[in-house]
Amino acid sequence: MTLSEFSSIFVHEVRTPLSSATMYANLASEALEKGASDDLEMLLGRLIPALDSCSKLVDELQALGRADRDVELGPVDLNSLLERVVNDLRFEIEDAKATVNVGDLPRVKGNADSLASVFTHLIRNGLQYSHDDVPPVVEIQQNGDSNVLISDNGIGISGGDEEKIFEPFHRTHQKRDQAGMGLGLPVSRLLMQSLGGKLDLKSTGETGSVFELKIPATD
Predict the structure, then answer these.
(1) Concatenated DSSP letters of 46-78
(2) Angle at CA 69, nearest 5°, toward 8 and 125?
(3) Which of 52, 56, 71, 99 lies at a C-alpha separation of 20 to 30 Å from 88?
(4) What is the CATH architecture of 74-214?
(5) Farthest CA pair distance, the chain
(6) Number of CB atoms found within 10 A of residue 67's CB
């Protein structure tokens, strides 16, 4: 993919939420001047998700840049790391009426920022691709010495798409509230490779998906 093609995709993806945010901000300003508190509350409720979409696009680009450079490796306490990641995502988790359960996790060899990006993408994946009538549940558990399983109760991945989900800009499902450019899983796999690890789809179905992180153990 050329830089021009990438730029065109990025502009297309960011223009819609940015235009919506601008429109709702202008309408909210007018409502504030008129003292229309009900309209203001409604408009702010629409403005915030539009800004969140822009923020997620920036997160994906930032993670993409991190995957393309050498990072310093060292001991990482995954328990502390996941506590920070879940706290950073607390509003998204609350909005989705989701539950994120984290078991006792090992210390590994890696880079905290890179691993935080990977776990963030995988948790968001479980929140976004959920059944409409079932609250999302994401489980994060140790699997072996330094491997970690991330499972969800979502809609799963269509047959034949098991490897395509790791291709940039590929989306197996189109959801109305979906944000991002389809870079989360591809970037996460690149980040794991840069750490000397792996990210694989272990299983999928109508009851959800299970991803496995193979992370180098501490020396």
Answers:
(1) HHHHHHHHHHHHHHHHHHHHHHTS----EEEEH
(2) 60
(3) 71
(4) 2-Layer Sandwich (3.30)
(5) 64
(6) 22
